[in-house]
Design goal:
By secondary structure, this protein is of the alpha/beta class. It contains 13 helices and 21 strands. The chain has a seven-stranded mixed β-sheet with strand order 15-16-17-14-13-18-19, sandwiched between helices. A six-stranded mixed β-sheet has the order 10-9-8-11-12-20, sandwiched between helices. Strands 1-5-4 form a three-stranded mixed β-sheet, with no helix packed on it. The longest helix is centred in the N-terminal third of the chain and has 22 residues.
Length: 474
């Protein structure tokens, strides 16, 4: 049994009212620890500490901040085995996926450290003789970050990276279901030399924490990754307080598979992408539109390969797919599949829970799905592949673009003209052409429509956490 405490000013502490919440291993249902809940008094302390941390950290030179962050990335990599094992136990993903997440987290921190060394001011001549104008870049201040449980370390890492690289302090409201990952990463950053006051990690009742942190005068910037409904609520709170916000929200990614592709080889590729992290990825391929000529072969092969996946505890080497996060997620997935089944969908494989211990659900492949089935309209966030045939490209695109989601989309064709046409017409922030791109540090990620606004990552990873000052001198 482990205690996962609040991290404030470099010290781990219980909440002031000593309220705790159990943390479970989703593969076994066993309680592996408990996480502390923050009260308003705890949040006040975190805010006061972060304000002090911002003053201290922002005074460090850009070059030295880069050095410290790159040192932190190296420490995260050195501790990969231990961090990954805890990540697997709290979230359920296979250990190899957890190790990849830890290393990607280190990549984000390292990338931001490199970008920190490139922060520059721009000076230009004014219109009048003797007038010089300088455009200065400054850190925004204290950042309130809200992160999800599906990639608890990597999603936090990109926010820590951008905020700390820019010179900000950060208070991260980490998920109660997966508290260990962010604490482990934070410890590595503190050991690398980030001031203790510049990093805070809190847990508790999400609505209570967000409604208190966002309007707090110390907070200058809000960043959130999560669902569209929660994102809208936080955006309203931030708007009322005139706080800038970055939102990376849900997705329901269409995958267009055209008739010139080899249906067997394409299915083999897409099965791996679909069931990674048990489908609990906002960029996961979810709605498959397969051209009529190859539809039947594609579905047959996809179902065959999905049915061969080994589902089990993430710590076992043979596991291809781990459990869902919780019993609540099991219920949600079961309801989506049953709704589709009742509306006439064909279940080719899966469609049921596996066993009675742990939150395991079989990789599920559906076809012949009614347009009004919930799985075609709601983000499944689980191991469901919903496959439909098409023979009319315009009609298919109308369906593919017809939801409020606009995060990621995928096109599989070797026809160069069709690649360009489909890419241009898809209303999504990411289009993968014969590829399933992951969110790497060098790539900016942001959604269109209701999947959010603003981007994180890429050459501009620091920009969401910076503000501009114009100094005109005569």
């Amino acid at each position: 049994m482990l205690d996962f405490k609040l991290l404030i000013d470099g010290t781990e502490r219980a909440g002031s009212t000593d309220v705790w919440q159990d943390v479970q291993n989703p593969a076994t249902g066993e309680v592996i620890g408990r996480v502390a809940h923050a009260t308003r008094d705890d949040l006040d302390l975190a805010l006061q500490t972060a304000a002090r941390g911002f003053a201290e950290w922002s005074a460090v030179s850009n070059w030295e901040r880069g050095t410290i962050l790159k040192r932190g990335a190296a420490l995260i990599r050195d501790r990969c085995d231990d961090l990954a094992l805890m990540l697997t136990r709290e979230m359920g993903k296979p250990l190899r996926e957890a190790k990849a997440e830890v290393n990607r987290s280190a990549d984000f921190i390292e990338w931001a450290g490199e970008q920190a060394r490139r922060i520059t001011d721009v000076t230009m001549q004014g219109r009048q003789p003797g007038n010089r104008i300088t455009i200065e870049t400054h850190p925004a201040g204290v950042v309130a970050a809200f992160t999800p449980w599906n990639f608890p370390m990597a999603q936090a890492a990109k926010k820590f990276a951008g905020a700390l690289g820019a010179g900000c302090a950060i208070i991260c409201k980490s998920p109660e279901e997966t508290p260990a990952s962010v604490l482990g990463m934070s410890r590595a950053l503190l050991d690398a030399g980030v001031p203790a006051a510049a990093i805070g990690v809190v847990y508790g009742v999400p609505a209570e924490i967000s409604s208190y942190l966002i309007p707090a005068p110390q907070v200058a910037k809000v960043t959130f990754t999560g669902s569209i409904p929660v994102g809208k609520l936080l955006a309203v709170q931030a708007g009322q307080a005139m706080k800038p916000v970055t939102m990376e929200l849900g997705g329901h990614a269409p995958v267009i598979v055209c008739k010139d592709m080899d249906p067997v080889a394409t299915a083999d590729i897409l099965v791996k992408g679909k069931f990674a992290n048990a489908g609990q990825i906002c960029m996961s391929p979810t709605r498959f539109f397969v051209e009529d000529d190859i539809h039947d072969v594609f579905v047959s092969r996809f179902a065959e390969m999905a049915g061969k996946l080994t589902v089990g505890p993430g710590e076992e080497d043979s596991t291809d797919m781990g459990p869902l996060l919780s019993e609540r997620r099991l219920t949600a997935i079961s309801e989506l599949v049953e709704d589709a089944r009742q509306r006439g969908a064909t279940v080719h494989t899966g469609g049921q829970r596996i066993g009675n211990t742990g939150a395991f659900y079989a990789p599920t492949v559906l076809s012949d799905i009614a347009p009004d089935a919930r799985v075609m309209r709601e983000e499944p966030f689980g191991p469901i592949a919903a496959i439909q045939r098409f023979d009319d490209e315009d009609a298919m695109l109308g369906v593919a673009n017809g939801l409020e989601f606009g995060l990621s989309s995928y096109v599989y064709t070797n026809d160069a003209a069709r690649q360009r046409r489909l890419s241009d017409r898809l209303k999504y922030g990411v289009v993968g052409i014969n590829d399933l791109p992951a969110h790497m540090p060098e790539i900016p990620l942001g959604g269109w429509k209701e999947s959010g606004y603003g981007t994180e990552g890429g050459q501009s990873i620091l920009e969401p956490f910076q503000k501009t000052k114009v100094v005109s001198h005569r």
